[in-house]
UniProtKB/TrEMBL annotation:
Record has Cell membrane as a keyword: no
InterPro entries per the UniProt record, alphabetical: CBS_dom (IPR000644), CBS_dom_sf (IPR046342), Mg_transptr_MgtE_intracell_dom (IPR006668), MgtE_N_sf (IPR038076), MgtE_transporter (IPR006669)
Organism lineage string: Bacteria, Bacillati, Actinomycetota, Actinomycetes, Kitasatosporales
Source organism of the structure: Streptomyces longisporus
Alphabetical list of Pfam families matching this protein: CBS, MgtE_N
PANTHER family with a match to the protein in the record: MAGNESIUM TRANSPORTER MGTE
Name listed for the protein in its UniProt record: CBS domain-containing protein
Domain CBS: 390-448
């Protein structure tokens, strides 16, 4: 039954993804055959109904950060003699390969004033970094494609291919020729042009999250590592603090160190505060004492005090690699009580794999794996589970100053996925997870970025 349910849910996700792809504009043959190259338009002539040239295209203005799935073109920047002026989109009759034809012989030319959400496509987006969400990679826009869609001209896609860059270096007749073989649909793109617009932040945020919310933390980490300084700080600003912290935990230590130094101290402090305690401690250790203190003083006092305690443990020891996130219970509780405690920690589910049972003095009696809780009856007393687990011997614990290599030996011997770290009185201080041991013992391995490996 469980396998069948999993298969059905997987099929549903694939079906939803296929429907989404089919709804994208660039999947339409009519749209693909009507693409107009932005690179070919720039510098091209603008003619009136009589075919007389009235100016040259300098740039195309689009409302990039708006509610529409495809940014509509709102006008053109023209060069007429030595003057640059703005032509509203409603004066344009047709966008063609390499030139623009006007709707009327008389045009209303205005001085250009950027409105909220607008960008200049050639200046602000073309040749700039963007995120290909489907391919999970950072790339650059070699060309942008416009197309008529629902009675208006919109930005429908981005060309990221090398041949397109070469095409733009060739003769003028080549530059206007679209090459749609490597077109990314605009809905699969997160652009970085925030510095070029004064649009409402919440609008920019909504437009960008539409594409980015599908990415896993490891994917976001890859992207953050590949972005330039300004772009990755912008991306961090788009993400919810919890989502950003999850991505930071997957980054290479050197890249994370650079990112925290680049960010404003207030923002960096908030990001570190959202990270799991053990990951935050590792990140702070890589900073100088002055940089570390600058972040700690900007955190809530309780969280800062906890991180300072963790920093007192030497690197390479159990205390230096443990997380202080613990779920504990007493013998007189029930399994239902323990499940309620776990439900409160749902956002930290990757950091919790067992519940420590302690006596009235806070000493460890038992460490109950989540599987044992999953198969137990809600009404079962925790004391019964403690008695049942006793047949496997006492819980495996280590001291805070235990070398990580020794802790790894004990973890393997116990065939467990984590170890409790205790003080001299056998009271739990924290927990070391198996993946944290691997990261600490094999730093030269780095994070496993399967996307890069496959590329």
């Amino acid at each position: 039954m469980a396998a069948h349910t999993l298969l059905m849910s997987t099929s549903a996700r694939l079906r939803d993804r296929r429907v989404t792809l089919e709804r994208r504009a660039t999947a339409s043959k009519a749209v693909r055959t009507s693409l107009v190259s932005l690179a070919g338009l720039v510098g091209g002539p603008v003619t009136n109904q009589s075919g007389e040239e009235v100016g040259r295209v300098v740039d195309v203005v689009a409302r990039l950060y708006g509610p529409e799935p495809y940014p509509p073109v709102t006008g053109l920047i023209l060069r007429i003699g030595r003057r640059r002026t703005f032509l509203p989109a409603d004066a344009v009759g047709k966008f063609q390969a390499g030139h623009v034809r006007l709707r009327t012989a008389r045009v209303d030319l205005r001085d250009f004033a950027r409105r909220p959400g607008e960008v200049l496509l050639a200046k602000d987006v073309l040749d700039h970094q963007l995120v290909d969400v489907d391919g999970v990679q950072v790339t650059r826009a070699a060309d942008l494609y416009l197309a008529p869609l629902v009675d208006q001209v919109v930005l429908v896609g981005v060309d990221v291919s090398l041949p397109t860059l070469l095409r733009r270096l060739g003769p003028r007749r080549w530059q206007a020729r679209p090459t749609p073989e490597r077109v990314l649909d605009w809905q699969a793109v997160a652009p970085f042009a925030e510095q070029a617009t004064e649009g409402p932040p919440e609008v920019r945020l909504r437009a960008s999250r539409t594409a980015l919310h599908r990415l896993r933390p490891a994917d976001l980490a890859d992207i953050l590592e590949d972005l330039g300084r300004a772009e990755r700080q912008q991306l961090l600003g788009w993400l919810e603090p919890e989502q950003a912290a999850d991505a930071l935990e997957e980054m290479e230590p050197a890249e994370l160190e650079n990112l925290l130094r680049e960010a404003k101290p207030e923002h960096a402090a908030r990001l570190v505060d959202e990270m799991e305690p053990d990951e935050a401690t590792d990140a702070l250790r890589d900073l100088t004492g002055e940089e570390r203190e600058a972040l700690l003083t900007r955190m809530p006092k309780g969280e800062a005090a906890e991180l300072r305690r963790l920093l007192t443990h030497r690197e390479g020891t159990a205390g230096g690699a443990m997380t202080t996130l613990l779920v504990t219970a007493h013998r007189d509780a029930t399994v239902a009580d323990m499940r309620a405690l776990l439900a409160e920690q749902v956002e930290h589910r990757t950091e919790v794999d067992a519940v420590a049972v302690v006596d009235d003095e806070g000493r460890v009696l038992c460490d109950i794996p989540l599987f044992d809780l999953a198969v137990a009856e809600d009404t079962a007393p925790v004391a019964d589970l403690v008695t049942w687990r006793a047949q496997f011997g006492p819980p495996v614990t280590v001291q805070a100053d235990t070398p990580l290599s020794d802790a790894a030996d004990q973890l393997v011997a116990a065939r467990a996925s984590s170890l409790l770290v205790v003080d001299d009185g056998d009271r739990p201080l924290g927990r070391i997870l198996a993946d944290d041991l691997l990261d600490a013992l094999l730093p030269e391995r780095g994070r496993l970025h399967f996307r890069r490996f496959l590329q």
